[in-house]
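FAQ: What does the model actually see?

It sees only this:
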Amino acid sequence: MTYAQVLSTIRTALSQRAAGTKVQVAAHEAAEIALLNYIEEKPTGTGGGETVVSRNAHAISVADTNCDLVWNNPFLDTSYAFVYHGFDNSGNPVEITYLSKTNTKIIVSTMIAANIFAIANPY
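And it is asked to produce this:
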């Protein structure tokens, strides 16, 4: 059911009835069911039905070596945005170099060993 169909059902039940008549229970129920069905079927994200569920990743990098940050739940494709940050053993921030991404991970590198964290959402 499309947005326009749901809107039409709601208008028919509530505002397009004859003046002075009550809202009919059956029409009101049909409008509510149509709305609930629309919400249930509607994807909450973009990109072919991908739902908006944040993914996260964590890894410990080795100096000057590619590091895979693997998402806890893979994406349908690479249509997602992410942020990452990392800290050395003393808690100081480290510079992270982005290399590439797939639907299952991003690949980064650091100049020193670090704990790296990332979070991503589909777009």
